[in-house]
């Protein structure tokens, strides 16, 4: 079934100049990019996006980091888009991510793991609306 997922190339990915690499992998997988924008998040939007993590020990660092510089927000669409992107991204912890995945290839620690992806089709729709209300 066709789904949407919100993809973020986080500030570490932009700073390290791997935006093109990540977009290329999205395209090669066969997902369709239906929205894309380079922007720096304010703390309120970051809080909405990461609402489920509020109160966790890593939350303050997470919000500081995700608002620290420009990121690229992308909505990708296609059959099994959520699982397909999670496979490309790899596990949250880069040292546990499958070899060849983005996090395995480009990161070493969980709190600087290059990309984000929605964890369910429902969250894909919710998160896409936060970043692209008019989509
Ligand atoms: P992301 O997919 O963006 O969703 C929440 C983020 O919080 C996650 O990627 C990690 O970057 C970060 N994160 C999750 N768990 C931890 C943790 N235990 N310690 C530090 N950061 C974490």
Automatic annotation (TrEMBL):
Residues 2-135 form the Nucleoside diphosphate kinase-like domain. The keyword Transferase applies. It catalyses: a ribonucleoside 5'-diphosphate + ATP = a ribonucleoside 5'-triphosphate + ADP; a 2'-deoxyribonucleoside 5'-diphosphate + ATP = a 2'-deoxyribonucleoside 5'-triphosphate + ADP. Its EC number is 2.7.4.6. GO terms for cellular component: cytoplasm. SMART domains: NDK. Keywords: ATP-binding, Cytoplasm, Kinase, Magnesium, Metal-binding, Nucleotide metabolism, Nucleotide-binding, Phosphoprotein, Transferase. PROSITE patterns: NDPK, NDPK_LIKE. It is an enzyme of class 2 (transferase). The active site is at 116 (pros-phosphohistidine intermediate). Pfam families: NDK. It comes from the Bacteria. Its cofactor is Mg(2+). ATP binds at residues 10, 58, 86, 92, 103, 113. One of its GO terms (biological process) is UTP biosynthetic process. GO terms for molecular function: ATP binding; metal ion binding; nucleoside diphosphate kinase activity. The keyword ATP-binding applies. Belongs to the NDK family. Major role in the synthesis of nucleoside triphosphates other than ATP. The ATP gamma phosphate is transferred to the NDP beta phosphate via a ping-pong mechanism, using a phosphorylated active-site intermediate. NCBIfam families: PRK00668.1. Homotetramer. This is Nucleoside diphosphate kinase. The gene is ndk.
